[in-house]
């Protein structure tokens, strides 16, 4: 039966490009989800299998990361214009190069610390019983990032360990934190929630850590120190890995990556969970019953 190749395009979808500008101690970040598509005369690739005209999607991805450094990300439009022009030039069979960008906004909470704009959700779990009432307040999807002051080294190694040690990495998490009130009498719930959240942010921004584990304990300790009315706090913290993109194999003179361009990976992720409890905390009874997502 006769048939004809119709519309086609190809590219790399959802490159999670994170650009850190760290020329001064006050870092900037731009966080993008970048997709590229080339359209043009790619009939041979489909019909005869001849890939001569095809600029690999892998190359398109590499270019997206390299351009975050070479051109920078002043704005998504400006970056996309530069990347699109480069892809069109690099692939003669292409008639158009489309670059689609989603940018995630971050608010500053320190010189090198940021909280993702607008995503977090306040939670409350109240258990009313004949023998007592418990309130567990919390926050989910609190996305935090430190662009320095984080290391991970000195860890246990075996024959399957390949992770390089690092004394300067991006530390990012989408935090779930829940805290149990020791008493429910006379608590200003809104003020309490605001104060705990502020302590979490301030501690995340102000603490040099050697692991996410150390950060959770620091945040938990700071919250219990500042809020005598709390009995305990529990955390579930995915380690949102930001891998330094390796530019060393690119044939571009002087292109280095000194902690400036990262790929934000979504899966798999480390999942670090911890509880910090005041020594004289009243018993939790069934305050945590059916509260999901904790160790
Ligand atoms: O903060 C971290 N804690 C870990 O336990 C761990 N494991 C790992 O591979 N990276 C990290 N980072």
Automatic annotation (TrEMBL):
<dbReference type="GO" id="GO:0006144">
    <property type="term" value="P:purine nucleobase metabolic process"/>
</dbReference>
<feature type="binding site">
    <location>
        <position position="57"/>
    </location>
    <ligand>
        <name>5-hydroxyisourate</name>
    </ligand>
</feature>
<feature type="binding site">
    <location>
        <position position="58"/>
    </location>
    <ligand>
        <name>urate</name>
    </ligand>
</feature>
<feature type="active site" description="Charge relay system">
    <location>
        <position position="241"/>
    </location>
</feature>
<comment type="similarity">
    <text>Belongs to the uricase family.</text>
</comment>
<feature type="binding site">
    <location>
        <position position="152"/>
    </location>
    <ligand>
        <name>urate</name>
    </ligand>
</feature>
<protein>
    <recommendedName>
        <fullName>Uricase</fullName>
        <ecNumber>1.7.3.3</ecNumber>
    </recommendedName>
</protein>
<feature type="binding site">
    <location>
        <position position="239"/>
    </location>
    <ligand>
        <name>O2</name>
    </ligand>
</feature>
<feature type="active site" description="Charge relay system">
    <location>
        <position position="57"/>
    </location>
</feature>
<feature type="active site" description="Charge relay system">
    <location>
        <position position="12"/>
    </location>
</feature>
<feature type="binding site">
    <location>
        <position position="57"/>
    </location>
    <ligand>
        <name>urate</name>
    </ligand>
</feature>
<keyword id="KW-0560">Oxidoreductase</keyword>
<keyword id="KW-0659">Purine metabolism</keyword>
<feature type="binding site">
    <location>
        <position position="239"/>
    </location>
    <ligand>
        <name>urate</name>
    </ligand>
</feature>
<dbReference type="GO" id="GO:0019628">
    <property type="term" value="P:urate catabolic process"/>
</dbReference>
<dbReference type="GO" id="GO:0004846">
    <property type="term" value="F:urate oxidase activity"/>
</dbReference>
<comment type="pathway">
    <text>Purine metabolism; urate degradation; (S)-allantoin from urate: step 1/3.</text>
</comment>
<feature type="binding site">
    <location>
        <position position="57"/>
    </location>
    <ligand>
        <name>O2</name>
    </ligand>
</feature>
<feature type="binding site">
    <location>
        <position position="213"/>
    </location>
    <ligand>
        <name>5-hydroxyisourate</name>
    </ligand>
</feature>
<dbReference type="InterPro" id="IPR002042">
    <property type="entry name" value="Uricase"/>
</dbReference>
<dbReference type="Pfam" id="PF01014">
    <property type="entry name" value="Uricase"/>
</dbReference>
<feature type="binding site">
    <location>
        <position position="239"/>
    </location>
    <ligand>
        <name>5-hydroxyisourate</name>
    </ligand>
</feature>
<comment type="function">
    <text>Catalyzes the oxidation of uric acid to 5-hydroxyisourate, which is further processed to form (S)-allantoin.</text>
</comment>
<feature type="binding site">
    <location>
        <position position="213"/>
    </location>
    <ligand>
        <name>urate</name>
    </ligand>
</feature>
<feature type="binding site">
    <location>
        <position position="169"/>
    </location>
    <ligand>
        <name>5-hydroxyisourate</name>
    </ligand>
</feature>
<feature type="binding site">
    <location>
        <position position="169"/>
    </location>
    <ligand>
        <name>urate</name>
    </ligand>
</feature>
<feature type="binding site">
    <location>
        <position position="152"/>
    </location>
    <ligand>
        <name>5-hydroxyisourate</name>
    </ligand>
</feature>
């Amino acid at each position: 039966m006769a048939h004809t190749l119709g519309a086609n395009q190809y590219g790399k979808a959802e490159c999670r490009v994170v650009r850190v500008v760290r020329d001064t101690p006050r870092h900037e970040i731009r966080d993008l989800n970048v997709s590229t598509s080339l359209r043009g005369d790619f009939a041979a690739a489909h019909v005869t299998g001849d890939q001569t005209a095809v600029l690999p999607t892998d190359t398109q991805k590499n270019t997206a990361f390299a351009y975050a450094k070479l051109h920078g990300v002043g704005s998504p439009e400006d970056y996309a214009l530069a990347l699109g022009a480069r892809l069109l030039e690099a692939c003669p069979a292409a008639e158009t190069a489309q670059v689609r960008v989603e940018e995630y906004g971050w608010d500053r909470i320190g010189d090198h610390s940021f909280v993702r704009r607008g995503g977090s959700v306040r939670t409350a779990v109240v258990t009313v019983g004949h023998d007592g009432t418990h309130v567990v307040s919390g926050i989910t999807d609190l996305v935090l990032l430190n662009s320095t002051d984080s290391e991970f080294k000195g860890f246990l190694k075996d024959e399957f360990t390949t992770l390089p040690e690092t004394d300067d990495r991006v530390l990012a998490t989408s935090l779930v934190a829940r805290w149990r009130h020791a008493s429910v009498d006379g608590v200003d719930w809104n003020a309490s929630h605001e104060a705990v959240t502020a302590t979490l942010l301030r501690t995340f921004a102000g603490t040099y850590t050697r692991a996410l584990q150390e950060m959770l304990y620091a945040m938990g300790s700071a919250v219990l120190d500042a809020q005598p009315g709390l009995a305990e706090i529990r955390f579930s913290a995915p380690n949102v890995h930001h891998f330094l993109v390796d530019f060393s194999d690119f044939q571009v003179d002087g292109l280095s990556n000194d902690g400036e361009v990262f790929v934000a990976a979504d899966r798999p992720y480390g999942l670090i969970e911890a509880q910090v409890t005041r020594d004289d905390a009243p018993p939790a009874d069934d305050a945590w019953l059916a509260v999901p997502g904790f160790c």
